[in-house]
Write a structure and sequence with these properties.
With about 240 residues, the protein is an alpha/beta fold. The protein has ten helices and seven strands. It has one domain (about 5-220): 3-Layer(aba) Sandwich (Rossmann fold). About 50% of the residues lie in helices and about 15% in strands. It is globular.
Amino acid sequence: MGLFIAFEGLDGAGTTTQARHLADRLESEGFPVHLTKEPSEGPVGNLISLVLKRRLVAPQAGRPLDPFPDDLLALLFAADRIDHLHAEILPKLREGEMVITDRYLLSSYAYQSLGCDLRWVREVNSHALLPDITFLIDVPAPVCLKRIERERWQTELFEGLDKLVVVRKNYLRIAASPIGEEMNVIRLDGEREVRAVHKEIWGELSKADSLLKARTRKARFDRPELDLQPPSGSAPPLPLEEEES
């Protein structure tokens, strides 16, 4: 079975660039690779992309409602993730390919918990397969926003500075918690030159390779329920519950 690798970080942090570099490196080493992203190219993913670009709004009393309600958007992301999982991720993993996704579960936790309770966001994503390794590319919000404004003519739904500041705090807080440990999160300094970040990613993946290959993967993918049953009881709380300043 192939490895499942996720790249996470703020918009503008360089997740797409680093995912592409890693895919190219793995392919050059002879590994079959499937590079994908979220929102996906599926029907729900395309709907989310329109929402994020503010091109799809819900009418209310004859006026546009922008943005979508937070809980509705969180449910859309969860639905897209399950579609993505069954349509792309699991089939490719079963074929032995290395699956690299630009955004996945940690993004939902960091972004959707802006307006929703994190425990609830975890519950609606409880059927999602955990990555083998998650690379969190950490870049301060002002730097990300400058990159976004330089590269695009329009910002998306979550790309205001105030929101990005809070989302970064969410990323770091969750990554340092037991939730982050479940997803094997490795934080990287994304302010460095692209090659330096890639070198660290390759080094971390090489160190983790023997551990990841030693996992019993057959049970993980071959059970009829695909190990995607919801957990019993409520999700454990984060260790840091104090209000962020």
